[in-house]
Amino acid sequence: MQKESLCVHAGYAPGNGEPRVLPIAQSTTFKYATTAEVAKLFDLAEPGFFYTRLGNPTVDAVEKKIAALEGGVGALCTSSGQAASMIAVLNVASSGDHVVSTASIYGGTFNLFAVTLKKLGITVTFVDQNATDAALENAFCSRTRAVFGETLSNPSMDVLDIERFAALAHRHRVPFIVDNTFATPILCRPFEFGADIVVHSTTKYMDGHALQMGGVIVDSGNFDWSAGDYPELTEPDPSYHGLVYTQAFGKAAYIAKARAQLMRDMGCCQSPQGAFYINQGLETLPLRMERHCRNAEIVAAWLVRHPAVESVNYPRLPGHPQKALADKYLPHGTSGVISFSLRGGRDAGARFIDALKMISLQVHVADIRTCVLHPASSTHRQLTDEQLHEAGITPGMVRLSVGVEHVDDILADLEQALG
Ligand SMILES: *Cc1c(COP(=O)(O)O)cnc(C)c1O
Fold this sequence. Notes:
Layout (H helix, E strand, L loop, with lengths): L2 H7 L25 H8 L14 H14 L3 E5 L2 H10 L7 E5 L4 H13 L3 E5 L5 H6 L5 E7 L11 H10 L4 E4 L4 H4 L9 E5 L13 E5 L11 H4 L10 H5 L3 H14 L5 H12 L1 H21 L3 E5 L9 H7 L7 E6 L2 H11 L4 E2 L9 E3 L11 H6 L6 E5 L5 H12 L1
Parallel strand pairs: 2-3, 2-4, 4-5, 5-6, 10-11
Antiparallel strand pairs: 1-7, 6-7, 8-9, 9-12, 11-12
Helix pairs in contact: 1-3, 3-12, 15-17
The protein binds pyridoxal-5'-phosphate.
Pyridoxal-5'-phosphate (PLP) binds next to helix 4 and helix 5.
């Protein structure tokens, strides 16, 4: 099936007389007749649901749908995108290990890597994703266990050269983990370009309606764990009666371990009700992405011509430094997110946002509703203009997430607010 059909049908196939719509299995637990049957589940000898932290029919259907969309062998839903990134890294790195990450990543992921993983003894080296091969090679050490990047970075909208980073990671026999949140599998499937693991914040376009927090990790099944240094995957797990994940689960070893070990111990699971909402969003994801991209392209081209606008950052615009990468990896569009800078700095940015009528000020992106955020007066408020510059943010920068309304209404609101 094509992506559009997978969004509607993958993950749930009702039999005779069963609900047409994915049911919400609102239950923490599941019934069995004998202790022997439950014992098999606890030994991971047979698949089956026994406790919703480790698996639930509604959550399982969404995991199967997202795995099918990305072209992976399995997926694990989490309570948020942050939990997905955390588990994705902790599944291959422990205290003393090291990760190479691109620098232009989501602020929350940056804090997770720079502050919290550091406290756990995992160090992260941040690299400029446009650096030379030699500079990137220098970032690796003998304890490097993963490379991390974002297909489209939030909020700077840099396009990642996925093939280049996959080749780099594989030369060092480590997996390449890609945060594909803004692109979604509708616009880009990182596994087709060599990525090994994909993570998403499903809170963004996958849900799309700003209803439900969530995250997901998808395993391509392509990475050869025994060729690298991953004893936790290739040697007996004492917390599972000496089970060896690569032997018991083959290509799905990584995602099986993430669930059996880390979800068991950390408990950041998605709820059945939450998974139902995400599934509802997934059903229309291709339609919405098409509209988000089309509207954003019109808005970006309009902003470029507006005299109050100093610069526009949208990778599909002619002359954008990563236009060629965008054409290669995201030929159908680069999502609805645009950042642009107003002449007149911090005050102009705040005045513009306060004057908007239909477009709302929200700490969110990738919503059906067009929304804006002014970093200099909100998320980066405490920084001086000089510090903002170091963070790659101008005082007049606005992050605009173009929704699915009629584009004429979006342009009319922008026009009246720009004055
Ligand atoms: C929002 C976001 C996250 C974090 O996801 P939450 O669901 O908010 O925890 C991670 N990566 C990217 C690219 C994001 O936009």
